[in-house]
Write a structure and sequence with these properties.
The protein has 208 residues and is of the alpha/beta class. It has 2 domains: 58 residues, no CATH class; 124 residues, Zincin-like (2-Layer Sandwich). The chain contains 4 helices and 10 strands; from the N terminus they run βββααββββαβββα. The strands form 3 sheets. It has a 4-stranded mixed β-sheet with strand order 4-5-7-6, covered by helices on one side. It has a 3-stranded mixed β-sheet with strand order 1-3-2, with helices on one face. A 3-stranded mixed β-sheet has the order 8-10-9, covered by helices on one side. The protein starts with 20 loop residues before the first strand and ends with a helix. The N terminus is likely disordered.
Length: 208
């Protein structure tokens, strides 16, 4: 069994996807659980002493659910493996952008052409990492605006109160809620379906 750290979420970064299933032994685990991450990576968390046979039975019992979640979350895989994507689809807000790259001497920036949903990255285009960073900053701003508005709507519906919302790139969490009422949402939520996002928002608001 693997004892490597938890799987990590990636966005606009190259990563090794040769092993999409891992088993992690956790001293804090009291029972077996499974997590599916964007791109289809599956992590089975088991308590110390769990035998391979028990793990196999657990996976077999939940295989249909796992396969369904992998199918749902694999939409994030193309972006997770591209530094320079040609298109970006965001199911949570029903947006689909075509990405164009225009070389210029100006500082690297992203410009949105709304009528035809084009995303233009313009500036020096030699460094893929810088391009990934500028796309990520744009996406973070968009997620803060769109997911923040949805969180406010769900909170009003349910009579919840919270202090503020922030968008982060958590490595192993979809979201969290602090003791002071700050709700942190994972940037990768924009790649999920509206129903899944709503479920996550309600879950975090319940912590308040």
């Amino acid at each position: 069994m693997s004892t490597q750290p938890s799987a990590q979420l990636s966005l606009f970064e190259a990563r090794d996807t040769s092993q999409t299933w891992t088993v992690r032994v956790s001293r804090r685990a009291r029972r077996l659980s499974v997590r599916v991450y964007p791109g289809g990576k599956v992590e089975v968390v088991v308590p110390p002493g769990a035998s391979p046979a028990i793990v196999q039975r657990f996976v077999g019992t939940h295989r249909a659910w796992i396969d369904e979640r992998v199918s749902d979350l694999s939409i994030a895989a193309p972006l997770a493996n591209q530094l320079r994507p040609s298109e970006i689809y965001l199911p949570s807000i029903d947006r689909h952008y075509r990405v164009e790259y225009h070389h210029s001497p100006d500082p690297l920036a992203v410009h949105v052409v709304e009528p035809d949903s084009r995303l233009i990255v313009h500036g020096p285009l030699q460094d893929d990492r810088q391009i990934a960073n500028v796309l990520r900053r744009w996406l973070t701003q968009l997620a803060h605006r769109e997911l923040g508005a949805r969180l406010a709507h769900v909170a009003k519906e349910g009579g919840f109160n919270y202090e503020r919302v922030q968008i982060r790139r958590q490595r192993t969490r979809w979201g969290s809620c602090s003791a002071t009422g700050t709700i942190s949402l994972n940037l990768c939520l924009v790649f999920l379906s509206p129903a899944v996002v709503r479920y996550l928002l309600v879950h975090e608001l319940c912590h308040t």
